[in-house]
Amino acid sequence: MPNVFGVQVFFIVFRECLEAVIVVSVLLSFLKQSLGQPHQDQAIYKRLVRQVWAGSLVGVLIALIIGGAFIGVFYGLGHDLWSESEDLWEGIFYLIASIIITIMGLAILRINKTKEKWRIKIAQALVAKSKKEGNRNWLGDWGRRYTMFLLPLITTLREGLEAVVFVGGVSLGLPATAFPIPVVTGLLAGLLVGYVLYRGGNAMTIQYFLIASTCILYLLAAGMFSKAVWSFQFWQFQEKVGADVAEAGDGPGSYNIRETVWHVNCCNPEIDNGWDVFNSLLGWQNSATYGSVISYNVYWIAIMLAISGMLYEERKGSLPFQKAFHRSFFSFVGKIPGLRRYAARKLEASSQNAAHIVSQVDADMLAHGVAQRPLAEK
Amino acid sequence: MSKLGSSSLLQLLLLLTTFLLAVEQAAAKTVTYDFNVTWVTANPDGMTERKIIGVNGQWPLPVIEVDKGDRLIVNMYNGLGDKNATIHFHGMFQNTTSNMDGPSMVTQCPIPPGQNFTYDFTVNQNGTYWYHCHTDFCYPDGYRQALIVHDKDAYFNDEYEEEFTVTLSDWYHEFVEDIQFLSLYNPTGAEPIPDSFLFNDTQRSSLPVKPNTTYLIRLINIGAFVAQYFYIEDHTFRIVEIDGVYVDAAEADTLYIAVAQRYSILVTTKNSTDKNYPIVTVADSDLLDVIPTHLQLNNTNWLEYNADRPHPDAVMHVDLSDELVPFDDITLVPHDRMELLPEPDFEINVTVSMNNLDNGFGYAFLNDISYTAPKVPTIYTVMSAGELATNSEIYGEFTHPMVLEHNDVVQLVLNNGDSGSHPFHLHGHNFQVIDRAPPFGPHFNDYLSGDPVPFNPSNHSAFPAFPARRDVFVLPPQGYFVIRFVADNPGVWLFHCHIDWHLSQGLAMVLIEAPLKIQETTHIPQQHYDVCQAGGIAYKGNAAADTQDFTDLDGQNKQVKSLPSGFTARGIVALVFSCISAFLGMGFIVVYGLSTPLVPPEKQEIDTSDVASIHDGPVPVTVGVQHTVEPASPYRD
């Protein structure tokens, strides 16, 4: 059975899609609350809504084109190069994949936070634009007029490219057949969850879903990390042995006995059907080495430590000593000539009130440049 | 009786003795060789100059030549400085002198540097033999050469004018000890690939011949690993001897000579001196796991009719060596017409296999036993065990001992569970080869396509009436062979694969033939024990060097443990810990996922907002935590 479902691909597409959907939904809700009220100009509102949708779709389209080319080139050129010392490359790919998943994985659990983050970011962008009123030029004018088009375009493009890069990175070891299904299902799942979020469905159910999928994601990543170490070791062994290892199948001689923690003469994920699923999900190896077992456990311990740290930060506002470090670091930077302003901005930003920024967003800004006469001059 | 009478009798006796001695001297002489074994350098293939084991400062080594019935004495001095050595005189029966046979830890201790060892025995046999070092990783470094026993009574003596001795050999550029063969990184036990092949320890040489003349060519494969095909372009020849046994002349064009095998052939030259003919030797590439591009598998030497004419290279007609069809040696008929031995009194039935043991090295097995040398050379155990010598247990479990009764007919069935062919050699005997499958020829590798085929006693081809006898016989891939011999030569005899790599992997077993007779007939010189002492090796006691209780084998050398199968304790512990940490980790993720963002007070707010969003259009659609900021919005109301 060829590998037709790259689980890691699914999760990355899902996650990036979800983020894009959230940005779009934030924009739409901004529009609705600022301009979509019954007493306001429905024509402008509808036009802006259309701009948001058009922007998102164009962004997705461009991302798809670039991504397709990227993956095409990647598979066209890359695979021949790597087949020579497959296990070394596999190890590197797995390591990259596991790092990527680890970094982005926990963020899914804070997808609501992401939404908030985007609200602030967008608000900041809008406020900043309206403040720069003074130096108007042709480009700025155009940009202002199509803010509601450009913002979602850039966002979806960004998320799309991110997805492409991540999917590329995570799935370097996968055959091309492993892509289509998880990409499509990942997109659908992302859209669905995003829509449910937008509609304000049962938040708890969504959260459970996210928790479950994050657990799977980290099982994957732990397996990959372990598999990466295993591949490096196997590669080393193979280098010393020569071509004979491949010929040995899964019996004696196919593994380095000195490194082996367990070995069963079956269930080789590369030969026996079915076990490759365990391999990609849990990092199963019929021949486990000290390296692969220890790295698996170390990975989970690291995750536990990271989560503990993040929980502490959320409860107390910062990691122990972090606040003090942040302040002292930037006040130190502030003493360096030339960096004073940068440091001041950093110090200011951290204490800025997010709610304040959001509250500055008003109908004027959103509709700015869209109507015949700029609303601001009305 | 009178004084005269007694004195005349004495005179007669004296006369008789002198006469007998004179006859003896004329018929059998003593041939003595002094071997000072040292390192020399040589470059036999013109590719790499290397250190080689030489004798008296020379290499190639001297060919030992004796006449049938001679006493041969070889005084060996190990001047290598860093390496043990011995000499095995391959094919010699060593009747009553099993202790002169040569394999270390079987019939003697390895001779350490700086020690002398005298081999002294009578050669009551004829034909083509060879000698070589018989300690681990030794003879491929050059320590091997022909041993010829001339026989004035050979039936073909009148048929040839001149004789040549031709040795064939594989050749390594590295020291055997430096080649990492028994290694974690050679798990399949892939045999090291030779760097070249030699013909009389050189290459591209010529045998000068006259037209219309018959020559006896003695062919010996003195290699360590690779069998070679042999033929002479446009010539046929007659086989007259194999491994020291004269056979009825048999016409042949191609021979397959496995390591340690010998053939004597009569070649009659053509009636013209126009051309020189290539003598072609082709390495059996089926034995090689990989064939490096630089390795020349077929080599040309010449039957040189005219030194001034060109020496053409052989034209190969086959792509692979196994397409050559060699003469099947089992069809030869011994010239003495010795009949098929009767049904055996004792049968040994063993199967060859290869596997890895717990240290990751590849080993070879006969019935799951990989020969592991005992602490005391087996013959010394025989000599020191008294009555207990007939108990095979005392020789240790891992020497795979078999005690044979004097004059028993022994049948040895050797099945091959391995996909390679193995030239098996029995010390101290030549044996009747009575069955083999598949036969030499185009079907030799046929059993490779399925499971190994063992010998079936109730269904086999008819045994020949006058079976060929030899001392090295090739076991086909996944096939079998059956041999018979009479246990009439008391001694300790090794039965082993003659591929030196396989011997080091333990593809051997030891036969202790009529142990009580050995004690009676064998005398071990003090010098042999001195050599043991110099090397710090015990020479009394059982395989575990226990001199008190011979049946107590505590401390015997054992083969490495088998590979653990499946999950061992540490595997289970590792798996359990991995599962625990995975579950704990996921627990943390769940806790994190359920924490802050959904703390109860905010959750209430979500609910109201949800209701609001459905019923009051203008209220922005939001969920979750952002409501903490929402109230600040001027558009709230």
From TrEMBL, chain A:
Q: Which residues cross the membrane?
A: 6-31, 52-77, 92-111, 146-167, 179-198, 205-225, 293-312
Cellular compartments per GO CC: high-affinity iron permease complex
The molecular function terms of the Gene Ontology recorded here are: ferrous iron transmembrane transporter activity
Note the InterPro entries from the entry.
Answer: FTR1/Fip1/EfeU
**Compartments, record wording:** Membrane
Respond yes or no to whether keyword Nucleotidyltransferase is given for this record. no
Tell me the membrane topology, using the record's own terms: Multi-pass membrane protein
**Key word Transmembrane helix present in the record?**
yes
Question: What's one Pfam family here?
Answer: FTR1
Keywords in UniProt for this one? Ion transport, Iron, Iron transport, Membrane, Transmembrane, Transmembrane helix, Transport
Family stated for the protein in its record: Belongs to the oxidase-dependent Fe transporter (OFeT) (TC 9.A.10.1) family.
Please identify the protein, giving its name as recorded: High-affinity iron transporter
Originating species = Capronia coronata CBS 617.96
Automatic annotation (TrEMBL), chain B:
Xref: InterPro entries: Cu-oxidase-like_N, Cu-oxidase_2nd, Cu-oxidase_C, Cu-oxidase_fam, Cu_oxidase_CS, Cu_oxidase_Cu_BS, Cupredoxin, CuRO_2_Fet3-like
As for subcellular location, the record says:
Cell membrane
What molecular function terms (GO) are annotated for this protein?
A: copper ion binding; ferroxidase activity
Q: Which domain of life is it from?
A: Eukaryota
- All copies of the Plastocyanin-like domain together span 36-153, 162-306, 371-515
Annotated membrane topology is: Single-pass type I membrane protein
Q: Name one GO biological process term.
A: reductive iron assimilation
Q: Which Pfam families match?
A: Cu-oxidase (PF00394), Cu-oxidase_2 (PF07731), Cu-oxidase_3 (PF07732)
- Name a GO CC annotation attached to this entry: high-affinity iron permease complex
Regions that span the bilayer: 572-594
**Family per record:** Belongs to the multicopper oxidase family.
* Name of the protein: Ferrooxidoreductase Fet3
Chief location bin: membrane
Source lineage? Eukaryota, Fungi, Dikarya, Ascomycota, Pezizomycotina
The positions making up the signal sequence are: 1-28
UniProt keyword Signal, yes or no:
yes
Q: Which PANTHER family match?
A: IRON TRANSPORT MULTICOPPER OXIDASE FET3 (PTHR11709:SF361), MULTI-COPPER OXIDASE (PTHR11709)
Keywords linked to the UniProt accession = Copper, Glycoprotein, Membrane, Metal-binding, Oxidoreductase, Signal, Transmembrane, Transmembrane helix
